[in-house]
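Below is how a single chain appears once it has passed through the pipeline. First comes the sequence as given, then the structure the pipeline wrote out for it. We keep one example in the README because the format questions we get most often are answered faster by looking than by reading.
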Amino acid sequence: MFKKKENIIIIVVLLIMVIAIIGVSYAAFSYSGLGTKVNSITTGSITMEYTEDDNIISMSGALPTTDATGKVRLNPGEYFDFTVSSKIAGDVNINYEISAKDVTTSERKIDGSNIKLYLTRLTDDGEEELMTPETYNEETSENTYTGRPSGEMSLYTSSMNSSETNRYRLRMYVTEEYNPQGDGGGLTFSVRINVYGKDGDKMPVNGPASSVVLENLTSGDTFDDGTDTFITGTDPNNYIWYSGKLWRAVSVNKEAKTTKLVTQWNISTSAYVKKDDYATFEGSIIKEWLNDTTVDGFLYNLRDYDKFIVEDYEWYYNKKTSSSSVASIVPVGLLNEYEYETSYTGTTYNNGYLNNGLEWWTLTASRDWDSMAIKVDEKGDSSSWYVASSYEGIRPSINLKSSVKIVDGDGTVDNPYRLNGDNDSNLRGTLLSSRYSGEYVRFGTDENNLYRIVSHENGTGTKIVSAEPLKSSGEFITMNFGSNATFSSTNTIGTFLNGEYLTSYVDSSYSSMIEDNTTWYLGTVGSGSSYKLAKYTDANMTGYTTSTNAKVGLLRMGELMAGQFDRYGNNTNYWTLTPYSSSRVRFVRNDGYAYYYSPSGDSDGVRPSVNLKSNVQIINGDGTLNSPFEIQLGS
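Resulting structure:
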């Protein structure tokens, strides 16, 4: 038997902190309990006044508690409310940070690794989560932007440039994993709540994605339907760079604090379902492509997806109304029609930020025809389209876990948000074969020197493709495919790629990095056929289809990065090496739709693809559009 314990959090107080900012100068502030009178601290240009009983939260004899219980406690003594207010005059930015410091004096102390803290902001609608429950963990370095010293736990950081008032609520509890048997009872833990602030340049973001993407929007760029908070408008600052691709944050779930993303561009193209199938997502070709965990699939090529995205997400055909509306429970899906239409609340579909100027599938089946689903066209209009015979663009959608943090960027297209765990730096010496589909690589010469990673299909090297079709003096190069629908190193386009391209578009320093002999698969993808048939004999991948060997080739129909990455009118049609039939070849139109044409009767653009050797290594860059990887052959 062990002594029964009770939860005792010894404070229920309201702190009122007033920060008066006059002009621009260095300033920092913190506070400590001085009694019940009004106290004032002035440092530099900041004056802070507050009334308080004590700014220390103490806990004694507490039992282990689940997050689900600890996050909602509202009994007297189970939470700590305080207010941070600012009065700012002039053009000034103030960075501030709320932190906690272990001030336990008792020798009978519970270890901080068994203590969780949880901070929310109080709003007119309730509480907004600012941090997921986290165990007490002191920072080893100071924050020079806010003035917080090392040796304290950072709870929340933000910036402000106008007078404002924010109310906060802090809870503290013992972790569920703690075993109280044998500890003798009566153990305590105390923290002092501190606030620090400085004026100066706005600090880099650092907080849950669900909070950051909403906090930094301008007024009117959200719509709340009671379940999700949607980002709306013409071009809000909701760009996120993750796993080699540019995404847009679409919505935040109000309860789960997950953040839904969709790629800015079409990653590939596909029929929605197989020939003669109904327009249902479950069992569809497109669901399989999105969640394929082989080297050919989208999910397989996402970086550490188990750490970043919700794997058992319920995808709805349209607005969340009932369980019968669930299309599937998988990691990756598509946006539905309701989500797309909600995104242009306050504007029109052609001006909404999710209109990327290309054609792409939504998750929603047509209300009138079993053989149709809703697509979005290049003008941003949504309509029904045939699911088996139409090869529309694919814009994958995922949901970031509530624990995922944004650690850099400002959400603009030139400086998208970066996620903790996907914000690498100092990659010199790293093998390119360890990097991710979509990342940019400097390769080739002049205006045609930008490429993107496709996959690591051969296991040891890196398959790359030109970021856009080849140009000459700013104009896209176009040519016939050949005399028939079979690609080889000696047909029209193959001769160009393995001859003039290697001598005029790729100098010797780059050509030496290319594998001399790559297998290029030539499987036929007809109407309502799986993308797997471009590479395998059947959709079960029991063997490989017909192929040819060459140093330089093209992407297959339905392959990663075989989509369009610019708006209609800014790009051109380009060939794939996949036949539609014995007399037709697949190409990707400049509106994102995949079609087919006579190999000798049409002239389309060329996106060369090569396999780089396994010892190619990075010498500079971070793989983004603004800082592509620079590479060389390693030893």
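The radius of gyration is 28 Å.

See the next section for the split statistics.
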